[in-house]
Amino acid sequence: MRLACVEVAGAREGAAGSGGWCKIEGMVLDSRYGKEESSGAMTRRVFIALSACALGAIGIFRFRKAGAAHAVAAGPPEIVTIVEFSKDGKRIGPVQVPKVVKSDAEWREQLDRTTFDVTRHADTEIAFSGQYDDFRENGLFRCACCKTALFSSETKFDSGTGWPSFWAPIAKENVVETEDRSFGISRTAVACRRCDAHLGHVFDDGPEPTGLRYCMNSAALAFEKFA
Ligand SMILES: [Zn+2]
Fold this sequence. Notes:
The chain is built from three helices and 14 strands. It is an alpha+beta fold. It has a six-stranded antiparallel beta sheet. It has a three-stranded antiparallel beta sheet with strand order 1-3-2, with helices on one face. The longest helix is centred in the N-terminal third of the chain and has 18 residues.
């Protein structure tokens, strides 16, 4: 199946040659037309592919929240409950920890540019560009900002979308899911519970046993091999 999809004008900074094409679930997409060339029917598979393509477009457009500078609230940080995991991936148990709250300037100093843009300003990395997309080592994927355990290699699968995909977080307590209506698309955004880092989105077209696809940005994750 060959699809015509929406070619996005312009290219992402530092990603010359990426163009407006994306290849999703074995199909070649050109985002200019948004419909199937052969039949014109908008099948669910096409919709999924276009949704994933739209995510790539988001990366190209480099979404930024207006205002940029995030103020750090006065007073002690909120206490949240997360689940800790050992280096060999075993669940240790829930712990109460203060939220990690930093200014944009502090995050910018700690993080590389892509990780800063993705985690602190909800940017999306270009499909197939991240280090954990085609990656099969066994270990934990922690938050790139605060090192909270987020995903295990045991739930990672090859979605073909160009972003690392998991069918479940390592603990539901460690992530926050919120509705995201940016770009006129209703999606569910996923963030780190402890530091609010934007991680990616979750979709309902994943494999069993959950049927979910946590579509994450490699830049938001820090891999730690099982000890
Ligand atoms: Zn975090």
